[in-house]
C-alpha cells in the first residue's frame, strides 16, 4: 500500500475509534440528562463508527507495525446540546474535507480497498450529521428527539431510521446485516 494512503487510513482509524468512544461517553451523559432517544442515537452511531474503524483497519491488513498516529477528535464533556454541537462539527468536517481528500489520494494511488472503506464512511457521516442536527434541535427546544428504530449496516455503517432496507443502498448488504437500536 502507498504510504500516503496508509497514513490517511491510520488517521481515519484513529478518528473513528475516538468517535466510537466519545459517542458512548456522550450517550451516557444524554441518558443521565433524561434524553433516552438521544442516548440511543449516540450508541447507534458509535457502532457505525466502529464499523468504519474496522473497515479501515482491514484495508491496511498488509501494513503491519507500530506507528504514531495523528488523528483529529473532539474533546469535552459538557451538556448534551454542546456535545451534539461537537458531534455535528466532527461529522461535517469528515464529510466536507477529510474523506473527500482521502478518497482523492486513494483513487490517485489506485488503492481500491481504501477508496471503498473511505466511501462507506463518507456516506454514513452525512446521515450522522443530519440525525445529530435533528437531535440538537429537539434538545434545544427542551425535549428528547422523536426517533424510531435506528438501523446500522454492519458492513458499511449506513445508518437509517425505521425499518432496515432489503438491501443496503451503499454496500448492497442484505437486511440481516443490519443491527437495530430500538
Ligand atoms: Fe459518523
Ligand atoms: Fe451497507
TrEMBL record:
Domain Ferritin-like diiron: 1-143
The entry's keywords: Electron transport, Transport
GO terms for MF: iron ion binding; oxidoreductase activity
Keyword rRNA-binding: no
Domain Rubredoxin-like stretches: 148-181
Entry's transmembrane regions: none
PANTHER family per record: RUBRERYTHRIN (PTHR33746)
Name under which the protein is recorded: Rubredoxin-like domain-containing protein
Organism of this sequence: marine sediment metagenome
